[in-house]
Amino acid sequence: MTSIGIYGSMGRMGQAIAAALPDFGARLAGGADVGDDPAELARKADVLVDFSAPAALEANLAAARAARTPIVVGTTGLAERHHRMIDAAAAEIAVLQTGNTSLGIGLLSRLVQEAAARLGADWDIEIVEMHHRNKADAPSGTALMLGAAAAEAMGTTLSEAGVSDRAGLTGPRAAGTIGMASLRGGSVIGDHTVVFASDGERIELTHRADDRAIFAKGAIRAALWLPGRDAGRYTMAEVLGV
């Protein structure tokens, strides 16, 4: 029985993961939260999941590396420096980092990459996401993940192609960009639509989250998949085998 340790155990996601573990035949190794020492949990868990906070990521990754314990990073709101930390950790242990642990989003990310690669430069790409009024970061981690998938297929990066600050007299849409729009309101769990638009036609790929339990289930699927993998950086698409 795989033992899973949870960073951010008192948060909404941490509690949902702990509650769902018996359904997957896994057990809880323990939990730690911001301000706790992450090292002990890393030593006694077979695999870790991190849904804490960006400020805690460095210490959590260091603990995982020291204990040689694979880790699933689901914390959102990460900056470029956090991704450099993840890359460094992935040189020594297996790390799966994702902006969304939903299996549906994992598949959507691969579909977006495939569409962007096949449709080519004549198609404009726009991403629209909506979340509840209390979400702190924008664009969402999921939108950034989808944008990065599209950018990779286009032979660029989201930092180069992404546009999320349209306001005022912006002029015509720049070719090769990936537009991102964020909506906030009510209790929306998470809606994401990637629009591919060309002259005379449009394709829209949409995922809507109706139950937060999907994220907990996906995180556990990822955590059960990760142990035994070689050191490296993995994605939810690989958990799905796509």
Brief descriptors of the model:
alpha/beta, 6-stranded parallel sheet, 38% helix, 11 strands, elongated, 242 residues, 5-stranded mixed sheet
Topology of this structure?
Layout: E1 3-7, H1 12-20, E2 27-32, H2 39-44, E3 47-50, H3 54-67, E4 71-73, H4 80-90, E5 94-97, H5 103-119, E6 124-131, H6 141-153, H7 158-161, E7 162-163, E8 178-184, E9 190-198, E10 201-209, H8 213-225, E11 232-234, H9 236-240
Parallel strand pairs: 1-2, 1-3, 3-4, 4-5, 5-11, 6-8, 7-8
Antiparallel strand pairs: 6-9, 9-10
Helix pairs in contact: 1-8, 3-4, 5-6
Describe the structure.
The chain is an alpha/beta fold and 242 residues long. Helix content is 38%, strand content 25%. It has nine helices and eleven strands. A hairpin with a 2-residue loop joins strand 9 and strand 10. Helix 3 packs parallel to helix 4. The longest helix is centred in the middle third of the chain and has 17 residues. The model has no long low-confidence stretch (mean pLDDT 96).
- Quantity of strands, as a count: 11
Main sheet: which strands, in order across? Answer: 2-1-3-4-5-11
Overall pLDDT metric:
96
Question: N- to C-terminal separation?
Answer: 26 Å
By secondary-structure content and strand pairing, the structural class works out as alpha/beta
Instruction: Characterize the main sheet.
Output: 6 strands, parallel
Q: What is the overall silhouette?
A: elongated
> In which range does the helix fraction lie?
25-40%
Strand content: 15-25%
Count of separate DSSP helical elements: 9
Element order: H for helix, E for strand: EHEHEHEHEHEHHEEEEHEH
What is the CA-atom radius of gyration, in angstroms?
A: 18 Å
Poorly predicted ranges: none
